[in-house]
Amino acid sequence: MLLIGDDWAEDHHDVEVQDASGRKLASANLPEGVAGIAKLHELVARHGGADLDPAGVVVGIETDRGSWVQALIASGYQVFAINPRQVNRFKERYGSSGAKSDKGDAHALADMVRIDRDQLRPVAGDSEQAQAVKVVARAHQSLIWERTRTFQRLRSTLREYFPGALKAYADLALTSTDALELLIKAPSPATAAKLTRTQITTVLTRHRRHNRDAKAATIQSALREQQLGLPEPVTAAYAAAATAHARLIIALNEQIALMEEQVRAHFLAHPDAEIYLSMPGIGEITGARVLAEFGDDPTRYASAKARKNYAGTSPITRASGKSHTVQARYVRNNRLADALQTQAFAALRSPGARRYYDKQRAREAGYNPALRQLGNRLVGILHGDSAAQFRAG
């Protein structure tokens, strides 16, 4: 058996190769890409011999995705993705100074897969379709998060010089493209007050707004209300900043819509899509996010409890002396936790899910704990359905 610690960077990998006793056999700085993988295979062949089973090569690395990781898995190696925080804690065995080096990290990773391999989670052998769902689902969610951040910047800017715009476009939602187009057309209080009802209605009509005449009248009235002003040069500077944010949000809206189509297409092409869509509270986008984070490797979760622990929905117990508390898990996959929270909230329209939620509230559980308990129950149901399909298949 060979144990390999792989400390990766953008353009290279520092690796250390150990034998089963922990003896250092080699270390190297490998370039990213085909040439680097080839040199890694040469190291394995040199120190493992021609008859070494690829499954006897165990690699620890601080990521679970990318072409390098996929190349390691395709070679038949066991690959363990290790959280960088775990590596930092593990290195405290060597000393408490907090010193860091790439070679030191590679050594720690090799030691971890040699000593603590049973406590680590191997990179899942997800299908190509599941990997595709993961790529587009994460990209879609990241774009939405970026839009939210940009909107907060825009909102903060408007509060500084043009709070009337926040009131005027409240009914449209300031992240909507029609509200942003109106803001770009008239980004200052003075220019906004000159917008005619026809100009406003034209924009609303292009975006197929209902009750657009009434909405246009409300917007025009709000934009013409008096408000405190700033010096003209300062207002112009704020208006330029607001326009830049508005244009960026419009671009993000377009890309989010396009990526959403990709999420649906890849998710519906996956054979497990039917199982996910049969669950309460799951639509195509939420289903894609949950599938992306759980993966579809049938051997990844040994039990429903293991799946719940990974999801972060199951509680953790802290017991010491006379103290005994049960708390929520906060070290978890945040993308998965967000998707499951969305599912649990939407599932409240299901009679069965609602009864379970109400039961938790009757036990004096708060809103979020009760929703988390519901999510935990739904994860257990999902695990049972997935395992049943695997056994049937």
TrEMBL record:
One of the Pfam families matching this protein, by short name: DEDD_Tnp_IS110
Protein name per its UniProtKB record: IS110 family transposase
Alphabetized PANTHER family for the sequence: PUTATIVE TRANSPOSASE FOR IS117-RELATED, TRANSPOSASE FOR INSERTION SEQUENCE ELEMENT IS1111A
Domain Transposase IS110-like N-terminal, residue spans: 4-163
InterPro entries noted in UniProt: Transp_IS110-like_N, Transpos_IS110, Transposase_20
Domain Transposase IS116/IS110/IS902 C-terminal: residue ranges: 275-357
